[in-house]
Amino acid sequence: MSYFQDIAPIRHEGPDSSNEFAYRHYDPDEIVLGKRMEDHLRLAVAYWHALAYEGGDPFGGRTFDRPWYGDDMAAARAKADAAFDLFRILNVPFFCFHDADVRPEGASFAESRRNLDEICDLFAERMQQTGTKLLWGTANMFSHRRWMAGAATNPDPEIFAYAAASVKACMDVTHRLDGQNYVLWGGREGYETLLNTDLGREAEQAGAFLSKVVDYKHKIGFKGAILIEPKPQEPAKHQYDFDVGTIYGFLKRFGLENEVKLNIEQGHAILAGHSFEHELALAGSLGLLGSIDMNRNDYQSGWDTDQFPNNVPEVALAYYEVLRAGGFTTGGTNFDARLRRQSLDPQDLVLSHVGAIDICARGLKAAAAMLEDGGLERMRAERYQGWDGDAARAMLTREPLETIAERVERVGLDPQPRSGRQERLENWVSRFV
């Protein structure tokens, strides 16, 4: 018997089903805006939270007892078997992983790389057997003590070199597994105190590192996207990939805005003082929207709790921005979410994903209905319709400041404000969610 105690694959049974081991709203083949729901959402399970997480939090250690926990290759292979069993039960098309999630740390870099290659050979077999695909891979350059002062931005050039080797190894296996994207998340790319930090030097190091990653992508013929994941702080006091706007400025500075997109997480957006839909809308407007990590934070906790999503209105507004931006291409919806430390049973791991997948399905359908209705876009266009005239457009292009000022006095302009209609718009959204 498998770890999941022969839980049957989860199937769509409709909203009236009383079976908790069934999808009520997620039907992979349902057509939404002319495309299958599965192809819109592109769901993925996060290897680190689903398989590698041990139930710890900042105040206490391991609470889970999984048969694959261990530091050797036998445990790594057992973990892979459990992972693909979970993917089969959930019937999701993708998964994501860090290198450190799937292989034990070796006594040398070469041994760690060989361990990664061996596990990815196993992945390739399981992927061929099951049809599960890789949404993205990434290198964990924040957990081991060597990364305590950063990876690409580390003051020690040998750490920079080790980081480069780690990314190359992980990009190689991601490419070999036909991964759709490669993600860079700089959990320690930041500082604890400015007293020992050279901001200018570290920015140049980060720019040089990312440029090398992009160059290597083209050299090996990797067709997926390079993604950066924004987060403002935690574990670093201040991280350089603070939010969408900050990363856009960084990419522009180093001429990489056409080479790199973003993997945006709900919880990280909130830690940065934003809403998820704000970060998605900004990325969409800049042409940087790549993929998303779907989760939520606890509003009573000040840290990144990585809980499964359960708020349909929030999820609907997020997918509305994804659809407005044209939907996912190489990206998708990765559940960067973990069980609570008291949720010990195999069934908990399955049902947490089932509930989250149904929430995403409901959110997607609500977002599609809003977009099809067109009311929000009509009201948005009405608010800015004054800018459609020739005189208004001239102010943005050819008219100098003094000409605009002279016209204000000559015509005797006395503009009055118009209602922003926020409550009416919120009521309109509520009709769909």
Automatic annotation (TrEMBL):
<feature type="binding site">
    <location>
        <position position="306"/>
    </location>
    <ligand>
        <name>Mg(2+) 2</name>
    </ligand>
</feature>
<keyword id="KW-0413">Isomerase</keyword>
<dbReference type="GO" id="GO:0000287">
    <property type="term" value="F:magnesium ion binding"/>
</dbReference>
<feature type="active site">
    <location>
        <position position="98"/>
    </location>
</feature>
<feature type="binding site">
    <location>
        <position position="268"/>
    </location>
    <ligand>
        <name>Mg(2+) 2</name>
    </ligand>
</feature>
<dbReference type="GO" id="GO:0009045">
    <property type="term" value="F:xylose isomerase activity"/>
</dbReference>
<feature type="binding site">
    <location>
        <position position="265"/>
    </location>
    <ligand>
        <name>Mg(2+) 2</name>
    </ligand>
</feature>
<dbReference type="InterPro" id="IPR036237">
    <property type="entry name" value="Xyl_isomerase-like_sf"/>
</dbReference>
<keyword id="KW-0460">Magnesium</keyword>
<protein>
    <recommendedName>
        <fullName>Xylose isomerase</fullName>
        <ecNumber>5.3.1.5</ecNumber>
    </recommendedName>
</protein>
<dbReference type="InterPro" id="IPR001998">
    <property type="entry name" value="Xylose_isomerase"/>
</dbReference>
<keyword id="KW-0479">Metal-binding</keyword>
<feature type="binding site">
    <location>
        <position position="293"/>
    </location>
    <ligand>
        <name>Mg(2+) 1</name>
    </ligand>
</feature>
<comment type="similarity">
    <text>Belongs to the xylose isomerase family.</text>
</comment>
<dbReference type="GO" id="GO:0005737">
    <property type="term" value="C:cytoplasm"/>
</dbReference>
<feature type="binding site">
    <location>
        <position position="304"/>
    </location>
    <ligand>
        <name>Mg(2+) 2</name>
    </ligand>
</feature>
<keyword id="KW-0963">Cytoplasm</keyword>
<feature type="binding site">
    <location>
        <position position="229"/>
    </location>
    <ligand>
        <name>Mg(2+) 1</name>
    </ligand>
</feature>
<feature type="binding site">
    <location>
        <position position="265"/>
    </location>
    <ligand>
        <name>Mg(2+) 1</name>
    </ligand>
</feature>
<dbReference type="GO" id="GO:0042732">
    <property type="term" value="P:D-xylose metabolic process"/>
</dbReference>
<dbReference type="InterPro" id="IPR013452">
    <property type="entry name" value="Xylose_isom_bac"/>
</dbReference>
<comment type="subunit">
    <text>Homotetramer.</text>
</comment>
<keyword id="KW-0119">Carbohydrate metabolism</keyword>
<feature type="active site">
    <location>
        <position position="101"/>
    </location>
</feature>
<keyword id="KW-0859">Xylose metabolism</keyword>
<feature type="binding site">
    <location>
        <position position="336"/>
    </location>
    <ligand>
        <name>Mg(2+) 1</name>
    </ligand>
</feature>
